[in-house]
Amino acid sequence: MRYTLGMAGALALFWIINSGHYSPLLLALGAVSVLLVTWIALRMDVVDKESTPLHLLGRIGPYFLWLGGQIIASNLDLVQRVWRREPRYQPQVARLPLPQRSDICRVVYANSINLTPGTLTVELKPDHLLVHALSEEGIAALEAGEMSRRVSELDR
Amino acid sequence: MSAVLAILSGACLLLGSFLLLTGALGFLRFADFYARLHACGVTETLATALIILGLMLLSDSYLPPFKLLLILLFVLFSSPTASHALAKAAWNAGVRPRDNQGKRDLPLPAGER
Amino acid sequence: MLALTVITLLLVMAVALVRAFAGPNVFDRVMAANLFGTKTVLLIAAISYLYGSPEFLDIALVYALINYISVIGVLRVTELRNEQRGTKEGA
Q1: Residue C91's pLDDT band (boundaries 50, 70, 90)?
Q2: Number of domains present in the structure of chain C
Q3: ipTM, 2 dp
Q4: C48 lies in which domain range?
């Protein structure tokens, strides 16, 4: 029930942001469409912890801030690699452990690796990740495990 | 106030454009498929965020910034998924990462082929 | 500054097209198409401010959705084709 309400709320917010019209007729139509989509989602059996991760809401904010800092730093690193006369990079492929148990944390971890330019998840296996990086430092930073630890803490 | 906003937005747009150019240059110059995917990532994360932030600061009504925020969120959620899908499809089709000259294959960790 | 951003975006899209024509294999081309699509989203958003018509932002949002789905779709097709080829060789 919590997840159904959460999903309907998110859909209603999305509708209001995108509409910009607040006449009674249009608001009623919006309410009908929100209910319709929620009903379809319930029938499809996709309303659960995974599609509406309410339990992450409280902790995801600080994590996104930290991730934003990482994204800026790695972007600057890549900028100075590209603008050399000879592009300077030593690609690396490495295997990383995947300690996260829940699917959503694995996805958040793999996507965070992809969002920071310079590191890229190539394969996501049940117990490990295959990561391609533009430099040894990228792999070393991931192996130090700060990102992994922060993602694990999201679900606790 | 609006002059300050205009200057801030101009700075964001300028920085974003520079990052876009950086990504495009890397996209042209890098010798290997996976390296080019990293260059793509530059244009899709910070450059997109800066340009959308610059546009947000330019708006005079209250609805467009929310729509821009939605666009930014969607791009930030979908672009890592798309690049992972690209990398995985290429890996499964037998494209292997090469060194920075694009000549030799990289050494792979034990157990990978 | 808006005009400069639009020109840069067009330049980047031209670069993506060059790579789409030159790209050694199909994945380079799909990557170029993906880059082209995400830059189109930004271009539509920037043009909506350049011309002062905020309705374009809806189009940009829809374009972002379509672009993502099309990239995943094309990749699925190439993957399925590879799988089929693999089973044929195996048999």
Answers
A1: very low
A2: 1
A3: 0.86
A4: 2-90
